[in-house]
Write a structure and sequence with these properties.
Blueprint: E1 18-27, H1 40-54, E2 63-67, H2 83-91, H3 102-107, E3 118-122, E4 127-131, E5 137-144, H4 156-176, E6 183-184, E7 188-189, E8 202-208, H5 218-224, E9 227-230, E10 243-248, H6 256-278, H7 284-290, H8 295-321, H9 334-342, H10 349-369
Antiparallel strand pairs: 1-5, 1-8, 2-3, 3-4, 4-5, 6-7, 8-10, 9-10
Length: about 375
């Protein structure tokens, strides 16, 4: 992953809309079962290996590990972190919730909760690593203030660089311990949820799009841009005051740098549209063009016209090929001949010949009778 290839685009030149930026991914540690089936003791061993790697990080990545309140798996903090500290981390969106959905509970994610679960925080509180939640590790680099726009909150390149250094640092320590992250040459990074196969990366920004998100086609044109929208509380949550968590929609098939750049370009465009609407402008034409409307649609119709003519010609041709030489009518007498003559068509001389031959035969038969 080449950090220098990340775009330098200012996603909010007005300093009015972007609150926070975040880059996260999951990682699984080779040699351990995934969270839905991992056992009590094995989860504790995984926690010990991961924490050793995390506590070896230096510089701006240096920090400490905090087990969830009530966890007794980490000797330096036998009862986990305090309830107040845990609640503070949750309110700022930096700590995961206890699983309560039927899907997660049925899959085994909540077994032995909260034992063996926790969070690593660097001293600057802009790097967080979740342990033993949905994935073995969930690495999150983020900065900004969810209550108001700041210059720090829109520095996506800075966030991405920290994220890469954290991933590499933890992996190096794991390798020294004889382990590594799970990776497959075909599927990429192996994680618990199939939707996260590939990079497992979600680059996102919390941005206020009050007027733009009020459009009925909001999520449709986001999809066209390779983006998705979540509410302020995460998956399936609602927006608060027009604030949305916008992130890349794909995880697999593209690289980390490409996905991050998709977010940067998309977020910058969304902010431009929102600002235009706030100033009383209109963005219908631009969005229609994105969705394949406007002048592009007219050109498509012009191109389709000749195709339709060709289709009509193709339909007529089989009619000519399907013509067969007429057969003599069954039975005898003038009635049959007259019936054949009645079917005569201008573009089918064969009918004339057949009718004439039949009439001639009828006349001769009648002469003999007389």
């Amino acid at each position: 992953m080449k950090i220098e290839e990340i775009l330098d685009t200012d996603i909010d030149p007005y300093d009015k809309y972007v609150l926070t930026t975040r880059v996260r991914t999951g990682r699984s540690v080779r040699g351990f079962k995934l969270p839905p089936v991992i056992g009590f003791e094995e989860r504790r061993k995984l926690e010990a290996v991961a924490v050793k790697g995390l506590l070896n990080m230096e510089g701006d990545l240096k920090g400490d590990y905090f087990p969830l309140h009530g966890s007794r798996s980490y000797p330096p903090k036998p009862n986990g972190m305090g309830e107040d500290e845990e609640e503070t981390l949750r309110k700022t969106g930096n700590l995961f919730q206890e699983p309560d959905s039927t899907l997660l509970l049925a899959s085994g994610m909540g077994r032995h909760w909260p034992d063996g679960r926790g969070i690593f925080c660097n001293d600057n509180r802009n790097l967080f690593v979740w342990l033993n939640e949905e994935d073995h590790l969930r690495i999150v680099s983020m900065q900004g203030d969810r209550s108001k726009p700041t210059k720090e909150g829109k520095q996506i390149k800075e966030v991405f660089a920290r994220f890469i250094r954290a991933c590499n640092s933890v992996q190096e320590v794991l390798k020294k311990e004889g382990s590594d992250f799970m990776h497959n040459d075909h599927h990429g990074w192996v994680l618990t949820c199939p939707s996260n196969l590939g990079t497992g990366l979600r680059a996102g920004t919390m941005v206020t799009l009050e007027k733009l998100s009020a459009r009925d086609d909001f999520k449709k044109f986001l999809g066209k841009m390779g983006l998705q929208a979540r509410g302020t509380g995460g998956v399936d949550s609602a927006s608060t005051g027009g604030t949305w968590d916008i992130s890349n929609a794909d995880r697999i098939g593209k690289g980390e740098v490409e996905l991050c750049n998709i977010l940067i370009k998309g977020a910058a465009q969304l902010v431009e549209w929102e600002h235009k609407l706030q100033e009383g402008g209109n963005v219908d034409e631009e969005i229609a063009k994105l969705m394949g409307g406007g002048d592009e649609k007219k050109e498509e119709k012009k191109e389709e016209a000749p195709k339709e003519e060709k289709k009509e010609e193709a339909k007529e041709e089989p009619k000519e090929e399907a013509k067969e030489e007429p057969k003599a009518a069954a039975g005898s007498g003038a009635a049959a001949a007259r019936a054949l003559e009645g079917e005569k068509k201008e573009d089918a001389p064969a009918y004339d010949a057949a009718a004439a031959d039949l009439l001639e035969g009828v006349d001769k038969a009648e002469e003999k009778k007389e």
